[in-house]
Amino acid sequence: MSRFDSLPVLVIGGLGFIGINLTTRLQAHGARVSVLTPSRERHAALAEQLEAAGVAVVEGDVRTHAQVSQAVAGQHLVFNLSGQSGAVRSMDDPWTDLDINCRGTLVLLDALRHVNPTAKLITVGSRLEYGRPESMPVAESDIADPLSVHAIHKRTVEQYLRLYRRLFGLRFTIARVTNPYGPGQPEGRTAYGVINRFIHLALADQTLSLYGDGRQLRDYIHVDDVVTALLALAISSETDGRAYNVASGTGTKMVDLATMVVEIAGAGRIAHVEWPPLAAQIETGDFVADIDRIHRDLGWAPQIPLREGLTATVSHYRSLES
Fold first, then answer.
1. Mean pLDDT, all residues of the chain
2. Would you say residue 1 has pLDDT above 60?
3. Across-strand partners of 78?
4. Which among 71, 158, 159 is positioned nearest to 119, based on CA atoms?
């Protein structure tokens, strides 16, 4: 039997990109899954599909204490996949990023403290917290100065978590996910998720725009590997109070990535464009994560090579067009 069998689990943001993949896997493992989503209407088809499979879908805002308190009551595990993403977007609209990421986390922590203090919280961080790395691969302790409002807020969220653990004994684990890709990201999403964005453009035979020479390294990981890591982090008490890189541990130049996408899709074209001024200011440079900690503590390692994952993702999105 799965260790998740009949376990009550809440996934906040469970209809988003990572969320829908996590929710589906949990349901397949026999967990009693509830999803808290800010907009059921925006994901109506997914909500109906999940409910037909026995998942409870509840509409609510992570910033609303009464709704969050009701949602976390009785849960054994709480995955927080809600939040505002996008470094450039956070500079254009810092207030929304602050409100959703920081206030939302405080509401959640306060609700857990008063309603369900024994639940474990698994929350997703960001590689942007590391700023511009001085060396690679980047380990969990290599925190540098963040270069965007979003990165500062993500760092602040981690401090909230540690404070509530120290004062009130709340359990948490942080997964600093690098650049995830795979099925489940809507076509119109442009603030983040570059691989899925490139795939959608290639399948539409449009232009994949690369800033500068496109030689900047990124660490890409398939969402199935991310979900496996999140489940392993959730079920282990050894990971309590710690942060973990969830990544491939391998760097790929963006121009090489774009070339692979075009080759696999058999469509699209690559164009090099000038860096937008703000994006250039907050660009973190090359990034490759050190994944020794999660491998050492849990035995986890990514299983899906990049080309294999790209091929499967292209096939998935192509099937949706037919």
1. 93
2. no
3. 10, 121
4. 71
